[in-house]
Design brief:
Elements (H helix, E strand, L loop, with lengths): L6 H15 L24 H14 L3 H15 L15
Amino acid sequence: MVVRRTTADMFVEGVEVAQSSAAPSHALPPASSRRDFKSIRVPFNEREFLILERLAAKTGRSKLNLIRWAVAQLAAQEQVLDQEGDSSTQGG
C-alpha cells in the first residue's frame, strides 16, 4: 500500500527536523575573537569624555580598552559571561 503524504504532513516533519537540528547556541565566542563583528559610534558629552580620559590615564588603559574592560567587568558582575570569562580585555 502506498501512503501519500500531505503537504501538512511534510510541513510538520520539516518543522520537527529543523527544531531538532537547530540547537540553541547561548555560548559566547572566544574572548580572543577578531574585533570585526560590529562597531559602534558613541557620542559623549564633555563631562563623560573627561571622565573617560581621566579613568584611562589613571588605569593605564586606552580609552577604547577601558570601555571594553568596563563592559567585561559589568558582565561578570551581572553573571552574563560564559565559564571562560573574558581575559582579552586585561591590560592595555
